[in-house]
Amino acid sequence: MKQEQQWDLIIRPKNNWHKLDLQSIWHYRDLLMLLVKRDFISVYKQTILGPLWFFIQPVLTSLTFTFIFSGIAHISTDGNPAMLFYMAGITLWTYFSDCLTKTSSTFIANAAVFGKVYFPRLIVPLSVLISNLIKFSIQVLIFLIIWIYYLTVSSTITAQWHYMWLIPALILMMAGLGFGFGVMISSLTTKYRDLTFLVGFGVQLLMYGSSVVLPISTMSPKTQIIMLLNPLTSIIEAFKFLFLGSGFFNFIWLGYSFVFMLILMTVSVLIFNKVEKSFMDTV
Amino acid sequence: MSDSVIKVENLGKQYHLGQVGTGTITHDLNRWWHRLRGKEDPYLKIGETNDRTKKGKSDLVWALRDINFDVKQGEVLGIIGKNGAGKSTLLKILSRVTSPTVGEIKVKGRIASLLEVGTGFHPELTGRENIFLNGAIMGMSKQEISSKFDEIVDFSGVERYIDTPVKRYSSGMYVRLAFAVAAHLEPEILIVDEVLAVGDAEFQKKCMGKMKDVSGAGRTVLFVSHQMSSIRSLCTKGVMLNRGGIEYIGNTDDCVSLYLGSQDNSGTDLINRTDRLGAGQVRFTNIHIYNSSGDAKVEFFSGDAITIKLNYQINKEFNIREFLFSLVFFDTQERIMAAFPSDELNKVFDFNFEKKIGEIVLHIPELLFRPGNYFISIYSFIGQSGENDYVDMITNVKKITVLSNDFFHKGILIRSGEYTLLKGKYL
Asked: Are B298 and B333 in contact (CB under 8 A)?
């Protein structure tokens, strides 16, 4: 009848699910930033202390850890001031676990919105990464203040200035891993909810398996290898090493974590892309 | 202008009934095993048409099947059908919220869908913040929203509350703000699902006006509604869905009357009514109401011509000159709206005592009722019109619904209200 028309969009049962639509994500960048703003603003609305809670949370957790693990259980902190040691681990760890737990509920928590309007679904986990990054930066600030204090009064810690350029890479890797695990869990839980029960428990367990509390220097070489197979361990250890001067620091293991993160992110984004098309029918 | 902007081809959507549970994992495994061997999905072949009233054998149903249609640039397509006919599924697929099971849709231009107003509104955020968020969710850029911000606030009429969290809003204000954002979307194709059924009368009028502007600007609109009056006044083309398939596509008026006709329109059986009074020389057995084209209906537009037919049977002879009959319309508050007493109309019914059956026919050339529900009661007497003289009296024999239309031919839909209309105009 008429010649082939140019169609802007073709809706099919399955799209090329290996194709990551970066262009449409870019198109929705304003939404991304508004979601970040929403997350950030809405959390502390109707609180008196407001954003101060960002400071209070890690400080209180570190104090608790200092009291229990160092004060009562006498677990080694590699000779560092316990407060600083735990705070370094907790600050970085919290970023990872926040990203993971929040992205892992992407589909279920946003079902109402996703069921009514289309936008690239990946926007939501990406906004979680960014809003948590803001929270993380605030918490790093408080960590830095405490760190500078100890740097001046204590002689046990030695900052590794020549490796400080690695910090952004470490943060990026934590973000990537949290995003990867979270997105994968959220995709896998749309149909079968079983995994959601594991998330809270699993994240707790993973913390103890990531040398946030126990430095791997206290472990046998064999246990060390097992611990390092967890991609988070070498990142947290390296973070501590950069600021405190003690801790496990190895480029090969960091490289392992990096490759692990890349593979995880690729696989999880692929699964996410596949699930986002049909999840409304199964969620 | 006449280029297709949406082309739907062989579209189908299958749903799984029941719960997702252990049974589903065996299905999934079976599906996967078939795919691994390069075979077709075994569950696509089965499945039944979607009839919610009957119990089916399979728990897979086709919510939509073999849907084919084209929408041209600038058309306003009304989609109608009963609950469960597949309207919302179709809109969901078009808005990419869910994907089809088979078939494809080709689209030209940017689509925005309004399946709900206020999607993504966050209760803790202020009206201002929500306008930006909601606009962005619907695909507007921040800059676009900023440039229309004043217009949006103005349209919504909640300027005073714009910096208050929306959780403090009344539900009406919430909807007004939400619709205001939606109304300022400027996509090439707009998909709307019954959002007009919200807000007060004044706001609804505003919304209808906005919808008209949108379609007037040459943009394509797909519109789902149960309000036949809005479909009639807005749409240039209609699609009627029934059990997941297309029943009719084409002229809006034909489509609307087909839809109204498909509803419960069989004559109402009166023979089994026991809540009747009277000696029973005559018993009414059935009532039918027809529109001007002779189709039995229960919904009519203001000003329509209707014909009411009452069937009766005769049980005992009587003097036909003494027989009085009246048909009365009541509104929902049981106020009499109109009555047709046979003595005032000087009608003597000619009963055939041989045949023992017959019918009384009442023709009303113009139904001068405002939109709303009305109930018909029938009264018949011998001699006087007192309670002791009843032959047969039944209340609420039939409910009719009067729909709004452009009664005065001024391009404005008339309001509902349970009082009659009179023809007239300002000079």
From this structure: no
H and E: helices and strands count for chain A: 12, 1
Question: Rounded to whole angstroms, how far apart are CA atoms A81 and A64?
Answer: 14
Mean pLDDT of A136-156: 88
DSSP of A148-195: HHHHHH-SS----GGGGGGHHHHHHHHHHHHHHHHHHHHHHTTT-THH
The answer to whether B101 contacts A13, with C-beta atoms less than 8 Å apart, is yes
Looking at the whole model, is its pTM more than 0.90? no
Q: Which residues pair with B296 in a beta bridge?
A: B290
Q: Are B205 and B247 found together in one domain?
A: yes
Give pLDDT tens digits for A60-73: 888 888 888 888 88
CA distance B48 to chain A (A): 18
In whole angstroms, what is the distance from residue B62 CA to residue B45 CA?
11
Size (chain A), residues: 283
A206-235 as b/e: b if 16+ CB within 10 A? bbebbbbbbbbeeeeeeebeebbebbbbbb
Q: Do B99 and A118 touch (CB under 8 A)?
A: no
pLDDT at A1: 41
Q: B306 and B183: one domain? A: no
Distance between CA B227 and CA B401 in Å, rounded?
Answer: 12
Q: Check pLDDT > 50 for residue B1.
A: no
Q: Is residue B45 part of a domain?
A: no
Residue B304 lies in a domain: yes
Task: For an interface test with A, give the residue of B20, B41, B111, B164 to mutate (most A CBs within 10 A).
Answer: B20
User: What tokens does B30 get?
Assistant: 């079976």
Residues of B in contact with A277 (CB under 8 A): 98-99
Domain span at B412: 276-426
What letter does residue A105 receive in the DSSP assignment? T
A92-111 per-position pLDDT tens digit: 999 999 999 999 888 888 88
Q: For residues B160 and B164, give the distance between their C-alpha atoms in angstroms, rounded to a whole number.
A: 9
SS3 of B328, please?
A: strand
Final residue belonging to a domain, choices B233, B261, B289 = B261
- Residue A228, both tokens: 């390092």
| Of B246, B227, B181, B232, nearest in space to B76 by CA | B232
Domain match, B105 and B252 both = yes
Number of H helices, E strands in chain B: 9, 19
Q: Please state which of the ranges B68-77, B190-199, B253-262, B281-290 shows the lowest mean pLDDT.
A: B190-199
3 state SS of A77: coil
Measured between beta carbons, the chain B residues lying within 8 angstroms of A119 are 137, 139
Burial B354-383 (b: 16+ CB within 10 A, else e): eeeebebebebeebbbbbbbbbbbbbbbbe
State yes or no: pLDDT of B387 exceeds 80.
no
Residues near A77 by beta carbon (within 8 Å), at least 6 away in sequence: A70, A85, A86, A215
User: Per residue in A168-219, pLDDT tens?
Assistant: 999 999 999 999 999 999 888 887 777 778 888 889 889 888 888 888 888 8
- Predicted confidence (pLDDT) per residue in B104-115, tens digit: 898 888 888 777
**Token output for B194:** 């019954």
Residue A72's contacts (CB-CB under 8 Å, 6 or more residues apart) are none
What's the domain count of chain B? 2
- Do B91 and B224 form a contact (C-beta atoms < 8 A)? yes
d(C-alpha B405, C-alpha A232), whole Å: 68
B97, B130, B222, best to mutate vs chain A, most A CBs in 10 Å: B97
> Within its chain, how far is the Cα of A165 from the centroid?
20
